[in-house]
Every structure is written in C-alpha cells, then in structure tokens.
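Appendix B, record 7
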Amino acid sequence: MAYFDGVKIGDKVWSFEFGWGTVKELIYNSPYPIGVVFDNEQYETFTLDGKVEKSCNQTLFWNEVKFEVPKKTKLELKEYKYLVDLSNCKISKVKPIGCEDKIGLFRNDEETAKKALKQIKRYTRLLALRDQECPDSRGYVFKYEKQNWYIYKQNCGSDSERYEVHYSEFDCLPCCIYFKTKEDAQKICDILNSGRFDLEGE
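Structure tokens (predicted):
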C-alpha cells in the first residue's frame, strides 16, 4: 500500500522543499501521478510514495513534518587515569570522581602525564617571568592586526639552541605567550639565553 493511496484532487499536502500545497491533478498511468500546486505557485509531480524521483527519499507528506535540527556533537575528554596535579607539581593515579573541575588535567598513561606537567610548568613559568620582568606586557593577550611579539626556541635539542623573537598579526598560536613590544620579548630572550632563568627549574 502506497503512502498516498486514496489521494484526491483538492487534498492539502506538505513538502519539505515547497511547504504547503494542494493536489490539482491526478495523472493516471504515470509514475508520478500526483500533481501539486504549492502556495508559492510552484508545480511539481510526485509518486504515490511522495517522492519527486523514485530513487530519492520521500519529501511530500499529508501534514507538516516538524523536527529539531540536531546540534553539533560536543567532544568529551576521556583522559581520566592520571591527574596532572598542579598544586603539588606531581602525577597522581586517581579516579576522577569529584574532579569535574579538573577535566583536561588527566591523561591515560603516566608518561604522557609527566610530559604534560612539564609543558604546563614551562608555560606558567614563562608567563610569570614575562609578567614580573615586563610591566608593559603584564597580562597581554593576542590582538588581531597588531604586532604580537612572542619568543620561540630555535633548533630545539641541538647544542646551538637559542630563544629568538618573532611576531604575528593574524595567527594566534595556541598556548603562545605574547608580548606588547619587541623590546619586552627581546628582554626575556636575553634572560633565557644567558641562563639567568631556567624554564625547566623548580
């Protein structure tokens, strides 16, 4: 039995594409026997199953089909076994019950957790060094279409590695610490390159 068996001229129908319309003719011996004129004066023919083409999904119905447009699914973090404990600067194997405020500080293996702790410590020490030594850059955040100065380590892992200054106007790099002026960024580079401050230190 087809969806529109028993359809008659004058019946009101609804289409996903065109909205409400009225059956104006029934074309017998045709694969698309239902002729509909929609409220916007568009004319279309459909199969008895409410399709504009037999290979398509049904788009014509007896009544309006209401549905909620699905929202994009949010990604949930599932790293739960080892806590990167910032308050004690250590790694703890714990169950995350009651640690909802610490989601993102967990890792699923101890080695990765140790690396994460090391990176976080480097970031927070560099941030503190900037805020202490560069009053003009204290609390500075990336500003689009401005010269946002930052420092990076050149030739990581080699004997000739050094910190250097660079800037970005349009690309805000994740986890990058920015400076308001080139002079402030160079000051921190000089401190790090001279060995007066160790980002790896305690």
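Remarks on this record: The longest strand covers residues 19-26. The chain has a mean pLDDT of 89.
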